[in-house]
């Protein structure tokens, strides 16, 4: 079974691409959703996060106090690195267990915005980068995230690895630029992966 990573910055359309692969019967691991689950449900990680960010890191109901933690890490690269170094190994373990549950499939996808930054790409056999130009991403995000301003979105984009770097490191690129059709690109890759595991 191949493990394929899929990444790209905010607003490139990773979710849409992943849904297309799911329609082809390919399981997709959503790293953001699983990280939230792991932070809530793994007692060892909860204790590590409370030690690093205070008891206030969790609400009384056991949910991560996202605003508290975000307030600490957003403009503090050292504290963000601490958060990532605590969370990413637990997510990597969770992914390995999840992938083992899908060993009957020809390949699985792991979707993560921070695939290179977290080192998660090292677990993958191949990498896909989803690409969209900055102006297209901004337009999408302003429509999708009504609570965010253009300045907010630019701040998030500036903190992510540059798209050119992601493309140069990827084995495959899917262009979601409103110029090229997505479905043929996804099907072509799907067929390539199936050929590789025959």
From TrEMBL:
A GO MF term: dephospho-CoA kinase activity
Q: Which UniProt keywords apply?
A: ATP-binding, Coenzyme A biosynthesis, Cytoplasm, Kinase, Nucleotide-binding, Transferase
Q: Pathway, per UniProt?
A: Cofactor biosynthesis; coenzyme A biosynthesis; CoA from (R)-pantothenate: step 5/5
Q: Which residues form the signal peptide?
A: none
* CDD domains reported for this sequence: DPCK
**InterPro entries to which the protein is assigned, alphabetical:** Depp_CoAkinase (IPR001977), P-loop_NTPase (IPR027417)
Q: Where in the cell is it found?
A: Cytoplasm
The reaction(s) this protein catalyses: 3'-dephospho-CoA + ATP = ADP + CoA + H(+)
The EC number(s) attached to this protein equal 2.7.1.24
Instruction: Name the family.
Output: Belongs to the CoaE family.
Its job: Catalyzes the phosphorylation of the 3'-hydroxyl group of dephosphocoenzyme A to form coenzyme A.
Q: What is this protein called?
A: Dephospho-CoA kinase
Question: Source species, please?
Answer: Pontibacter silvestris
């Amino acid at each position: 079974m191949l493990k394929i990573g899929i990444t790209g910055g905010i607003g490139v359309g990773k979710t849409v691409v992943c849904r297309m692969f799911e329609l082809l019967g390919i399981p997709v691991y959503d790293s953001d959703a699983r990280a939230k689950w792991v932070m809530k449900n793994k007692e060892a990680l909860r204790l590590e996060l409370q030690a690093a960010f205070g008891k206030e890191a969790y609400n009384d109901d056991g949910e991560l106090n996202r605003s508290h933690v975000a307030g600490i890490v957003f403009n503090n690269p050292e504290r963000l690195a601490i958060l990532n170094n605590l969370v990413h190994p637990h997510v990597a373990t969770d992914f390995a267990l999840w992938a083992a549950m899908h060993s009957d499939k020809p390949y699985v996808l792991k979707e993560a915005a921070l695939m290179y930054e977290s080192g998660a790409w090292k677990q993958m056999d191949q990498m896909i980068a989803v690409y969209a130009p900055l102006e297209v991403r901004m337009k999408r995000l302003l429509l999708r995230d009504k609570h965010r301003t253009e300045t907010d979105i630019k701040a998030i984009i500036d903190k992510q690895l540059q798209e050119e770097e992601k493309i140069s490191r990827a084995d495959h690129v899917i262009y979601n630029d409103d110029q090229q059709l997505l479905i043929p690109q996804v099907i072509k890759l799907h067929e390539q992966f199936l050929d590789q595991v025959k």
